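User: quick one, fold this
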Amino acid sequence: MTNYTKLPAVLLLADGTVFHGKAAGKIGTTTGEICFNTGMTGYQEIFTDPSYYGQIMVTTNSHIGNYGISNEEVESGRIQIAGLVCKDYNIAYSRKQADGSIQDYFQQQNIVGISDIDTRQLVRHIRDKGAMNAIISSEILDVEELKAKLSEVPSMDGLELSSQVSTTETYTFGDEKAPYRVAVLDLGVKKNILRNFDDREVYAKVYPAKTTFEEMEQDFKPNGYFISNGPGDPAAMPYAVNTVKEILNADKPMFGICLGHQLLALANDIPTKKMFNGHRGLNHPVKNVIKDHCEVTSQNHGFGVVQEAVRASDKVEITHVNLNDQSIEGIRVKGKKAFSVQYHPESSPGPHDSRYLFDDFIDLMK
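Assistant:
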């Protein structure tokens, strides 16, 4: 598998912008919404984050693949990104602990990518023009043919994707004798979230996306509920919004991350919107307005809650605000044991400034 010669490849954006580069990964064609991540490390965790399902990832760090692939450093059972765009695609790797190269990894999982393009120029373009669909091909080099294929790709706006990445069967994580039991609604949960629960003496049971509150309650009788991260448009998930409403009505402790944050907002009549450009990276400053301190956060989302609606709501209060654009990064429901954040306190990759949120959830269950 490692015998590999870089062939030409083309990246075409929905606005007609074309980039020519070299093939990376499997020879083929892929489509998705193009976005960029500003993280300097953690490429494998990014590849396997279910929240990136259906998206072509542009990495702003120059070297990708340089420390190889480790079977332990995954956030789900497979690569979730639709494709990769990078500057330097490093098949040779330097880390002794690695299990293989990025090229072997991508070929095994049928991932198409493109390298050797000016990613700085591309990121500036996406930043100015907004997130849009794109196509990568190392088998079709005719731009007009690629335009025809790209025109058939649906917008991320209105897409329900969580049911495609969620587990199909329930499973448990942690020590069965642990003092706390948490039901996890899997909309695309990352493994490091489950590891953080296990570290805090939580026995978690993970349920498929469309499991009802009644089913989880009767099956597991948990001390609390966790609503996970995941891909797609939260407004296209009435089944999950209804589950969150039922948990709230039962007055159970609840914690939501990322997509779970958006669903908690929708359950309180606060609408969501598709962002011009999402927040994706490891260095986003967020202010905890309750404790009056700042934390550097890991983020990955292309949808957000409508800021004006949150501020006008009498059902929730704001707990966290993004210091770059003042978007709402955290809420808690008045009179309930329920709160959520838009970012990723489990990081992986990213800073550990926000791990205290897991402890706050444990406190609600005590």
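User: anything notable?
Assistant: The chain is about 25% helix and 30% strand.
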